[in-house]
Amino acid sequence: MLKKAKLVICIDRDNDLYEKAGISGPVIGREANLNAALKLGLADPAETDTNAILRAIQIYDKMSKEYNAQIATLTGSSKMGIEADEALSEQLDRILSEFPTESCIFVSDGASDESIMPIIRSRIKIDAVEIVVMKQAKELEKTYFVILEKLKEPYYARMIFGVPAIILLALAISSYFQLGWQPIAIIVALYLIARAFGIEDYFANLLSSFEFSVERISAIAYLLAVPFIAISIWVSYQAYLISSAADLDPAKTFAASVKALLEILPWALIIIIAGRMLDLINEKRKIEMTKYGLYAIVLLLFSMVLSVGAKWVLNDTPPYVSFGDFLAAVMAAGVMGFVSMEIMRSIKRRAILSLKLENKEVLGTSGNYVGKVIGVDARDGALAVRSALGQKYVIALESISRVGDKIIVESSR
Predict the structure, then answer these.
(1) Whether residue 214 is found in the same domain as residue 346
(2) What is the pLDDT of residue 141?
(3) Are residues 221 and 332 both part of a single domain?
(4) Using CA atoms, how far apart are residues 412 and 349, in angstroms rounded to an integer?
(5) Cα angle for residues 189, 167, 241 (degrees, 5° grid)
(6) Domain boundary among 325, 353, 381
(7) What is the pLDDT of residues 323-341, one digit of tens each?
(8) I need a surface site. Which of 43, 105, 185, 340 has the fewest CB within 10 A?
(9) For residue 413, what pLDDT is reported?
C-alpha cells in the first residue's frame, strides 16, 4: 500500500542558520537537518532554532513509520519582515513542487515564526503546530534574553535606535542653525515614509556594500571623499543663506541650495564608487564592477537632471534654461540610462561566461540554497541548476550578483 505523503516543516524566519552557521536553506532531509542543528548548536549553544530543528527531526522519525515523510527547514532573512516571508514562501513553493503533499506539521521556536503560518496555510494544510520552548527558561529571564538577542539584529536595532537617533541629530542641527521644528518634522516624516515603502532597507543594503576597512584600497578613496562632501554641504548652506537674504521665494531658495550642492557632491560620490571598484578588481570580483559602474552612470545622470531643473527654477544668470531644455535633459538622461544598462548587462554576461560555473552551488541573496549548476546555455544566457531534491531550474545570467566559491543570485526563481 502506498504511504500518504507528509511534510515536517521547521521555520527559521530570521535565518540564524546562515548568519551563525553558514548553512543555506532550505535544509532538506533528516541527515542534512541533523548536521545543521549540530553546526548551529556549536556556533551558538543558546540558539533556540537548534532545539526546533531537533524536535522536527523527532517528529519526522515518528511520521516515517506511518507516512512517506519528508523534513525541511526553511530559512528567511535576517532583515525579517517582507523579505523574510518572501524567502520562506519561495522555498516552500519549490519544496511542494518537488514533494507534493496535502498536509504538514509546523515546528517553530517562538512567536516571530508563527507569523508565517497564514502563508503556509495558503499553500498546504497544517495538521499540527509544535512550539518549542526551553524548559529551564523562566518567563522574565526568557523575555530578557529574547529582547537582548533581538536588539543585535539590524532590523530591530534600526527601529529601536535609528528613529530616536535621527530625531536627536535633527534637533541638534535645527537648534544650532535656529531653523525651528519644521526641518525635524520633514526629516522624520521622510524616514518613516522610506521605512513604510521599503526604501530604507534598499539604501541600508546599498550603504552596507560600501563597507569601510583600513586594509582596503577604498579606505583612501573614502577619506578623500569626506572633505569634498563636507565642502559641498557648506557651499549649499551658504547658497541657502544668500538666497534667504535676497528674499527669494522658497522654491528658488531650495533650487539655489541644490544647484550649489551638485557642483561638488556627485564627484565626491564618484570617488567613493571608484574606490569600491578598485577593491573589486583587487579581490578579483570583476562581475560586480558592472553594478557599481551603473551606480556611477545613474548618479551622474540624476545629478545632471537635478542641476538642469535647479537652473530652470532659478533662471537668474545666462545661459537661461527653459522648460523645454529641462524636458530634453530628462529624456536624454532616460535614453542614456537605458543604453548604459544594456551595455553593462552585455559586459556582465560576457564576464560571467568566461568563468567556470559548472558544479558550483547556487545561493539566493538571503543565503537560501537553490541548487548546483549542471550546465550553462551561452546562447540563451542561462544556467541549468539541479535542486536538492533533483528538480531542474533555469536561472538567467542577469540575476547573478556574485561568483566565487559559490554563485549568488538575486532571485532563486
Answers:
(1) yes
(2) 47
(3) yes
(4) 18
(5) 80
(6) 353
(7) 888 899 999 999 999 999 9
(8) 185
(9) 42
Q: Is the pTM of this model over 0.90?
A: no
Question: Distance between CA 127 and CA 9 in Å, rounded?
Answer: 11
Considering the domain architecture, whether residues 162 and 129 belong to the same structural domain is answered as: no
Q: Tell me the residue range of the domain where 75 lies.
A: 5-141
Alpha helices in 64-196 (DSSP H): 81-98, 111-114, 117-121, 139-151, 154-157, 163-176, 182-196
**Is 204 a domain residue?**
no
Which of 141, 164, 186 corresponds to the end of one domain?
A: 141
8 - beta bridge partners? 71, 105
Distances (CA, A) of 175 to 169, 170, 238: 10, 8, 18
Q: Any long-range contacts for 376-382 (C-beta under 8 Å, 24+ apart)?
A: 378/353, 381/349
Buried b (16+ CB within 10 A) or exposed e, 192-206: eeeeeeeebbeeeee
349 and 213: one domain?
yes
Same domain, 36 and 53: yes
Per-residue confidence (pLDDT) for residue 265, from 0 to 100: 93
For residues 135 and 166, membership in a common domain is answered with: no
The pLDDT assigned to 333 comes to 93
Local structure of residue 376 (DSSP, 8 states): E
Instruction: Give the mean pLDDT of 294-321.
Output: 88
Say whether both 277 and 257 belong to one domain: yes
Would residue 379 count as lying in a domain? yes
Cβ neighbours for 29, distance < 8 A, ≥ 6 positions apart? 70, 71, 388
233, part of any domain: yes
| pLDDT, the chain, mean | 82
Q: Is 22 helix (H, G, I), strand (E, B) or coil?
A: coil
pLDDT at 73: 92
Residue 5, φ and ψ in degrees, nearest 5? -75, 140
How many H-runs (helices) and E-runs (strands) does the chain carry? 16, 11
Query: What are residue 292's phi and psi, to 5 degrees?
Result: -75, -30
226 located within any domain: yes
Residue type, 230: A
The residue written with cell numbers 526604501 in the block is 199
Which alpha helices (H) appear in 315-392, and where do they start and end? 323-353
**181 with 257, same domain?**
no
pLDDT at 412: 44
Q: Please give the tally of structural domains in the chain.
A: 4
Choose between 191 and 26: higher pLDDT.
26
For position 379, which CATH number holds?
2.30.30.240
117 burial type by CB count under 10 A (0-12 exposed, 13-18 middle, 19+ buried): middle
Cell numbers found for residue 285: 570580483
